[in-house]
Input
Amino acid sequence: MSQRPIDPLSLVRPHLLELEPYAAVDPPEKLAARAGIAESELVKLNANENPYGPSPRVIEALANLHRVHIYPDPGQTAMREAVGRHAGVDPARVVVGNGSDELIDLLFRAVLPPGGAVIDSVPTFGMYPFTAHVCGGRTVRVERGPRFEVDVDAALAAAEREDARVIAVASPNNPTANATPLADVERLLSAGRLVIVDEAYYEFGGVNAADLLPAHPNLAVLRTMSKWGGLAGLRVGYGLMAPELADLLLRAKPPYNVNQAAEAALLASIADAELLNERAARIVAERERMCAALAELDGLDPWPSDSNFVLCGVPQGAGKALFEALARQGVFVRYFSEPRLADFLRISVGMSRDTDRLIEALSVR
Ligand code: PMP
Output
């Protein structure tokens, strides 16, 4: 009997067939090839990475990994204790993930019913709609105000109207770089939904929402080692939340979600927090120097930043061409096509020499 070949996509959950892929950044070798330059010539200011790289203690810890043939600790005991001490919270509140991206996924999977709504204060980080879609939920877009502040009244009204399970707020926000005041977070918490405060850029000028954890069991604060720790390539981040929720995520996550290299790197980074804080302070100082230099250039308008990147206004209609002109010169920044961001570039803070190359490339545009 001849069998008709099975279309594997007919087996897939239908909502995934329309999934818009997350617009991730390309690796350095691809960027360098596109610009026709050596990788060493690249000025990579498009992914808010840490230009200093990891602490030297991380390199040492990775060189001394001694039991990679053994599975990592599914209970994350050493990491949860270290993170708890570092963040000033009870380790029972800590869950570690394969990047903070995984915490977004674990939380959405835990709380979103099919079609369940996430209130998204846009423009913001693209992983919230992407992950909500993958999980079978949806995001409800609530526009931020004129200075990209969260419109708390509109977010609360949308949460009520849509019976949302989650309100997500990146603070400092990506790509607008501004932090959300704690009073606004407290108002959002009053709606009784899960409020996720994503503090990926906390160490560069954020506001510490973790202080609100004891009074608010519906709060989850996310942080990452990708930015402050310079570990974007190793994928490790953490969430701080009510112990009951942490316990549930620990049971529902893939058991060995954080590999031993990431674990060793996280522990070594926390042990070297003083150095990483110093580097963060240098990045903040470089950010201010970069803003001042950008503001000197005709038509450019850097907005205030609480992060390791700057949202810079450009002349109307010039965003894409400027992005492309910089890329041709080997300087990669981020351009977003969504209408409200069309006249901006997002520029990560690098080393002084990166700022100098950026300013030079902008001057000859
Ligand atoms: N949240 C925000 C706001 C981010 O900008 C990023 C990284 N671009 C992340 C989370 C993800 O970080 P991680 O590398 O820990 O997955």
